[in-house]
Amino acid sequence: MRSEAIFDLDERRATIEELNQQRLEPGFWDDPESAQQVEKQIAEEQKWIDEWEALKEKADDVETLRVLADEEDADLEAEIFAEAEALEKHLEKLELRSLLSDPDDKRDAILTINPGAGGTESQDWAEMLLRMYTRWGEQEGFEVKMLEYQPAEEAGIKSATLSIEGQYAYGYLKGESGVHRLVRISPYDSSNRRHTSFASVFVYPEVDDDIEVDLSAGETELQTFRSGGSGGQHVNKVATGVRLIWTGELSNGDEVRIEAECTAERSQLQNRNRAEQMLRSRVYQAEKELQEEAKEELESSKKKIEWGSQIRSYVLHPYTMANDHRTETKISDVEKVLDGYLEPFIQASLLHDVEAKKAPAP
Prior knowledge:
Blueprint: H1 9-23, H2 32-72, H3 77-98, E1 109-115, H4 120-139, E2 143-151, E3 157-165, H5 169-173, E4 178-185, E5 194-205, E6 219-225, E7 241-249, E8 255-262, H6 268-294, E9 310-315, E10 321-324, E11 330-331, H7 334-338, H8 343-358
Parallel strand pairs: 4-9
Antiparallel strand pairs: 1-3, 1-5, 2-3, 4-5, 6-7, 7-8, 9-10, 10-11
Helix pairs in contact: 1-2, 2-3
């Protein structure tokens, strides 16, 4: 089994000991907010240690099965293989999580998809991406909620926004921001010609009460609209959909216009509250990118979306291949990828970021 040094367990135990000493100091609870942060950090560090201990226990169980099989000549091969495979997958997940060290990595994620130029082709591709990320989130045990969905006239979507809730959701998905390219024989072309379509994905951390974002520094415009769906009796005759548009200056003086839209809730008030939280998250992300640029730590996976900067291609014709252009990770089973199999891309992106941070400055 891999060394426990991968998980910095000695450092985590030392951190817990140091934080426990803080808890014993007089007046620790005089600042409840600070005290709660200490308690939260202790719990997070202890969870790593508990998970490692559980992993060791599983490894001991596999070894016990092997000994039994040798001593009693029992046919336990299938059981041993299943247990070893489960152990390996658990270890890989912990190793992947150990790469997430940014303070925002633990947060929930908000993911927005927009089609590029190309009409129905790109709108259909955007909906395929929406399904891919929904399936990935569900398979990983995250809670996936649709916050905003604007269907296109013929097929696909004009835009969509997902909330993906669960620990480290943003950390896993942050490398997905960028332009995604699809090459296929178009189902909308009667001549069966090959088409290339683009859609953009933008992922940002969902802010909570721990983060202060002051929207009063700019002007916020409220727009309302019907958020109904497929027509007929399902059309929403009341303007419950909400779009908030914030115009203001970032810390570097740049004038920006940032939008957030929510159509998922039944009432306008609920949609407005959710849209405001999304808006705060987007303003926070914009400021975060500024800080990263200033420190020269902004990686290619976090750069602004431009149509000439696709991060990944999904080719369905004349061959099948999903290729990440940043890490050169390639998977030939594109259908599996489109069904939510993103682990190789996520792992490669996180490892790429870690290596980039280690590299000496030019």
